[in-house]
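Build the 3D complex.
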Amino acid sequence: MSCTCETRLPVRDYDLEATLTSGQVFAWERMADGWVGVVRGRWVKLRPAAEAILVQTAQPQSEWSWLKEFLQSELELATVLTTFPREDPHLRAAVAACRGLQLLRQEPWECLASFILSSTKQIAQIRQIVRTLGERYGEQVSVPAGHPPGFAFPTAQTVANLTEGALRECKMGFRAPYLLGTARRIVEGALVPESIRQLPLNEARANLMALPGVGEKIADCVLLFAYGFPTAFPVDVWVARALSRFYFRRNRLSPARLRRFADEHFGPNAGYAQQYLFHYIRTQPG
DNA sequence: GACCAGGACCATT
DNA sequence: AATGGTCATGGT
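Done.
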């Protein structure tokens, strides 16, 4: 078995840039020659190429399933897109605008914590908070020579042992007690992140929503971005805006009604549709 | 300087 | 069930 610091993951229809900048993840940095992040404690640099993603790590790897899983690089996006509604010019326009946008499969705790920090924050600010948390409390990971230091996202155990004040100093404001409370519930074993995966969607959602600072929207983000429930449909202000503009003549509907519409209209991969609409309406001028 | 941001929560109606 | 206020902080 070969063991190297580089590989080439074949992909079809993968827009790395759109995927990493579409508000799913907040800890990836654009470098001159690629995207740098940390996946399951390993520093990674990714570079888009023809029909592939070129990968560099800091330490030799004997296998790459951890990265294929995160990137979902073996998923056939075309198959997902065929499940979208036939007659929907708005969704079709959104897909055309960012074809190759994929859903990642994140580590549950990091995803959950990140989205607890996301409430009424702009993505640029969420990134700042997550970066500060990592630099202060994350485990340092080894990086190739010449690169700035890298940090893993702090574990639930680490966060649980902090004070609310220490978290507030990371500029997360009123979200500090939420993050602390959720970390402590996890450390106590009141919720086992890996156990969520086997549950039916509604049970999984209910379990997440029992955590402090986690409502429907954040629960759906975690269900979609970490656990891979393809019908989870987070409705934030942008998605609400897109749905109301495209499907309801700009009338405002409650998030609950919008989600019900989404279930009926978008089908078995509604979560993907949601991500296309989110990225589309945020990146289209006007 | 006003307005808004990938909301949750609590108290009222 | 639906509305309104509150909670920090910083971008636009």
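Residues 23-24, 115-116, 118-126, 174-175, 178, 212-218, 221, 234-239, 278, 282 of chain A lie near DNA strand B (CB under 10 Å from a C1').
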